[in-house]
Amino acid sequence: MTGTSFIFWAAVLFPTTQWVADRFLAELNRRYVVARRSKVPEAFEGIIDTPTYQRSSDYTLARIQFAGVESAWGLAVLLCVLVTPVLAASYAWLQGWLGDAAWVQALWLIAVGVGLSIPGLPLEWWAQFRLEERFGFNTNTIKLWFLDRVKGLALALVLGVPLLILILKLVDWVGSHWWLWAWAVLMAFQLLMMVIAPVFILPLFNKLTPLAAGTLRDRLLKLGEKTGFSAQTILVMDGSKRSRHSNAFFTGFGRFRKIVLFDTLIQQLTETELEAVLAHEIGHYKRGHIPRMLIANAISMLVGFAVIAWLARQPEFTAAFGFGKDVGLAPALLLFSLLSGSVTFWASPLMNFWSRQHEYQADAYAANVLNDSQGLIGALRKLNEKNLSNLTPHPLYSAWHYSHPTLLEREAALAGIQNLAQW
């Protein structure tokens, strides 16, 4: 077997193996949920009623079934572009028409990215307007759904094309060390987006309004003062115009930090529970989770660029997919983006374990700063109930796919904190 043949079949095998492993995990999870659907587990008795528990199981099973269709379709599309000459042919045609300048390569990358997203649009529509609708979550409209995608495409063109051109031009400007400069550029871009996204981009999709004056606002601001965490403002986002799912998050950093609460979250939780949720989010900052995640992201990105630079120097790599000689950096960038997920998939349990430790630490911080864990426990119970979360995932599936501990795991950890405090 030649080098190019080996690379080609390895590229086909990696995503296929990932798909098989993921389907195996999904089937384990499906059987685990089905076996426990008929009766509320003992640990949840008195917490959730039988109809709600069974409805959450049905929602989980429906999502598993849909994910099976979605993943199979995604694999088929990926294999189609890998085994056919469509990528190499489109690249050669565009270069023959417009030349091999950096902006041409960037245009090709954007065009391929948009083209690969189109086959998934019908499934996205089905998930929103059929699956989510069936379980009472969808509040979106066809017009809004369509506009979201048009805005997303416009942002990709306005922000993505100049960024790609700059990265591709670095090859001409700094030579073999382009990847170090590209890493620095992308890191700077991400930090910049953390500042400007909440101000200029998020409002393009959602309406953000300051939290109205009242006892809730006073309570949350007082918590900020108590913990030494000052945010520029507390905002309410109209998440209910797309879904009844609820959430809360921080955006920005330093003096640009903003607390964002979904309007659905405010409707679902009491003030005590909202205070506990905010304390949990503050815990992520106070425990240093945000800079740790930024550092981990920076390291992984640096490794990724180093791999891309190495692959771009291997003529057999791009030749395995029909590209000719001296094709520039764009094909290696694209192929890496298409195949890297099949490699990082196997590191998911490790990354999720790390993320779960952060969640436990933030929970502990919230319980300690409020001197009570009941507010957070109540919030977690309601959020799991309102969002029809899977309360009984298979442990192996959970390890692979859950970045947060399950409700039972979080309650057990919080109970341990409370018992220790009492002792």
Give the tally of β-strands.
4
Helix content: over 70%
Low-confidence stretches: none
Distance between the termini: 67 Å
Shape: globular
Please state the CA-atom Rg, rounded to the nearest Å.
Answer: 24 Å
Largest sheet: 4 strands, mixed
| Spatial arrangement of strands, main beta sheet | 1-2-4-3
Classify the beta-strand content into a percent band.
Answer: under 5%
The number of helical segments is 17
Class by SSE composition: mainly alpha
What is the arithmetic mean of pLDDT? Answer: 91
What is the helix/strand order?
Answer: HHHHHHHEHEEEHHHHHHHHH
Task: Give a description of the structure.
With 423 residues, the chain is mostly helical. The chain contains 17 helices and 4 strands. It has helices spanning 3-36, 50-83, 86-98, 102-117, 121-134, 142-174, 178-205, 215-227, 263-268, 271-286, 289-312, 315-319, 330-344, 348-370, 374-386, 395-401, 407-422, and strands spanning 208-210, 233-237, 248-251, 258-262. The chain has a 4-stranded mixed beta sheet, with helices on both faces. A hairpin with a 6-residue loop joins strand 3 (248-251) and strand 4 (258-262). Helix 10 (271-286) packs across helix 15 and helix 15 packs antiparallel against helix 17 (407-422). The longest helix has 34 residues, at 3-36. The radius of gyration is 24 Å and the shape is globular. The model has no long low-confidence stretch (mean pLDDT 91).
